[in-house]
Amino acid sequence: MTKDITINYNGKDYSGNTIKIETEGAKPNLSWRMQLKGVTTGGEKITSVANFVNKILLFQEISPGYYSMSILEADALDGLIAASELVATNGIFSKSRKYGVLAESNLE
Predict the structure, then answer these.
(1) Most buried of 31, 63, 80, 96, CB within 10 angstroms?
(2) For the residues of the chain, what is the DSSP string, one character each?
(3) Band (8; pLDDT cuts 50, 70, 90)
(4) Distances in Å between the alpha carbon of 65 and those of 7, 35, 84?
(5) 0.85 exceeded by pTM
(6) Which of 56, 49, 55 is nearest to 13 (CA)?
(7) Tens digits of per-residue pLDDT, 46-96?
(8) Cα distance between residue 6 and residue 16, in whole Å
(9) How far is the CA of 16 from the CAs of 26, 97, 103, in angstroms?
């Protein structure tokens, strides 16, 4: 299953990003991943304007299929965990990633 979304980053809309959920194949475990491959109407790629390595990507849903994205430094992790109502770790050891949902009261 896939869903294409538009991400607004630094005031520009990047369309064509894809959320993929594994529902078929040898191991349909419902895990998901996001492919950041969006481009603006002028052809600017989202991957050319931001460095995602060792960063925290923060998404806020503006409307269905439309999200704003902020990029934070890794040292913001503890504060985000404290402000979250849900935190999970996916993966093992050095390749693991944390996912969370910020508490509504902390979004203001």
Answers:
(1) 80
(2) -EEEEEEEETTEEEEEEEEEE--SSS-----EEEE---B-TT--BGGGT---TTEEEEEEEEETTEEEEEEEEGGGHHHHHHTEEEEEEESSGGG-EEEEEE-GGG--
(3) very high
(4) 8, 14, 23
(5) no
(6) 49
(7) 999 988 888 999 999 999 999 999 999 999 999 999 999 988 887 777 777
(8) 6
(9) 27, 23, 28
